[in-house]
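#struct-pred
JK: can someone run the complex with NAP? inputs below
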Amino acid sequence: MTSTIGIIGSGNIGSALARAFTVAGHSVVIANSRGPASLAPLVTELGERATAGTVEQAAQAGELVVVTIPLGAVASIPSQWLDGRIVIDTNNYYPTRDGQIAELDDESLTTAEYVARHFAGATVVKAFNHIPALAIADHAQPAGTPDRRALMVYGDDAAAVERVSALVDQIGFDAIKGGGLADSWRIQRDTPGYGPRFTATELAIKLAEARRYRDL
Ligand SMILES: NC(=O)c1ccc[n+]([C@@H]2O[C@H](COP(=O)([O-])OP(=O)(O)OC[C@H]3O[C@@H](n4cnc5c(N)ncnc54)[C@H](OP(=O)(O)O)[C@@H]3O)[C@@H](O)[C@H]2O)c1
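RT: done, structure tokens with the ligand placed:
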């Protein structure tokens, strides 16, 4: 199944996902902070399945919308634009970039819960936060490839998790359902599973090793 996917953020991850989604046959509407004109070179490179839009247009392009911007900027996106959408949250917390966020500093919220609290009318699914942008193309392999890279998917809505897992699989990775948004701390920044290439078996070991109350 192909669909139109909105992408808010056209940086490392946004452009890598736009490439992967269009190669898989989806259409994308991609946006950034500087406006559609700044995206002309990227959409030319991506081809006819890609369109540049405003953030509002990307938010309303289809049922799936990737939000992939510095976490500190998430609260600046009007949340009602995402009402009723499945928001794919790729974001990680880097205080030096994002500023201090008290609920993340004391780990009373996961980053995904923080994003979901803002987009209260959307269904948030955490995905693509623990793979470096370049690896989205470099590590992709067809379904059934032995020792394929695995990526975690977390969410509180089973149907939305299923939908995003299918997308993860379609663009080249085994999708592992990790539980709800509250469980996604196991793959946040600086946890054992964060970053390197791991198969599903290896990733399960890394998740088990994760510790919640770490030094930031
Ligand atoms: N880099 C990685 O390998 C990686 C891997 C996994 C997850 N992540 C996470 O994914 C997110 C994106 O990372 P990235 O490396 O792709 O970031 P990036 O290269 O710095 O790109 C950020 C994008 O967000 C846009 N943006 C910033 N504020 C915005 C706003 N208020 N409204 C609309 N767009 C806005 C920027 O617009 P302009 O282009 O106009 O400046 C830019 O296109 C981060 O939370 C990061 O921690 C990154």
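RT: quick notes.
The chain has a mean pLDDT of 97.
The chain has one domain: 4-209.
JK: thanks, will look after standup
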